[in-house]
What we know:
By secondary structure, the protein is of the alpha/beta class. The protein is built from 13 helices and 11 strands. It has helices at 42-49, 54-74, 85-89, 93-104, 113-121, 165-169, 175-189, 202-211, 221-232, 236-242, 247-250, 253-266, 279-291; strands spanning 2-8, 13-22, 28-38, 78-83, 108-110, 134-140, 145-151, 154-161, 195-200, 219-220, 271-273.
Amino acid sequence: MKLAAIDIGSNAMRLLLCHVYLNNNNEPAFKKADLIRVPIRLGEDSFLLGRISPRKQELFFKAMQAFKNLMDIHGAVDYRACATSAMRDASNGPEIIEYIKKEIGLTIEIVDGKTEANIIYSNHVEEHLDKNQSYLYIDIGGGSTELTLFSKNKVVLSQSFNIGTIRLLHNQVDKQYWNFFKDWIKANTKSYKPLTAIGSGGNINKLFKMTNRKPGKSVPYSKVKYLYDLLSNYSYEERMKVFEMNPDRADVIVPATRIVLAVMKAANIENMIVPQIGLSDGLIHQLYEKHKDKVTASVV
Length: 300
């Protein structure tokens, strides 16, 4: 069975197409068939203007038409499309979503921060970790950062903050809110020690690749700090050239690393695990739960 997930973020939009089947142990297996990413940056309009401009509405519409065509070509049996922080903040967000549904037939949900955190947590990475330990799940997007604290395989709490890479890049996070963010982390994690971070999002995935560590290996706070200092010493143009970054990654990688450091320091976390998953993967897992009675053993 093939399922599809659309993640409409503040920095980029992603379409994930995934084969879902039962393996030899009769357990669900997820194999990515395709992942398409387009850096439209709705957040630049939403956070600075309060609405999505006509130009970005046009690009958004074209991207959704292309995604729907690809889902049809791949034969996806079901999909779920979710829009996050940029569309939550845009005054014309609901109007745009309604237009896309009418013209393309694509249903998009504008999800709140708590729902976004729950979708990300649906990946259930914790099932493969030490069940007696505590973890802080950190997902950094262009418009928001979602934190989920879980201990002994159970969610303790989750919270969404309007602190993201696009907001920081354009100085849209004031000092008072930034301090509130750090104080909240300190207050809510002090009883869970030792604590390990689990990082997700495109920027954290890029940081992990820059460490040259093997999958499954953790990244220490000191290494994240080293990368922050290193990246900060290069200009936007130099980061694209030296580290072979895309233009839409080279400018947000520094604010993303700043957020990671702030969370790890506030929670007194020494190490971060990076499973290289995100919102779209969580959507696929939720769709599987909906269709699991129809999933049969197969060879992919």
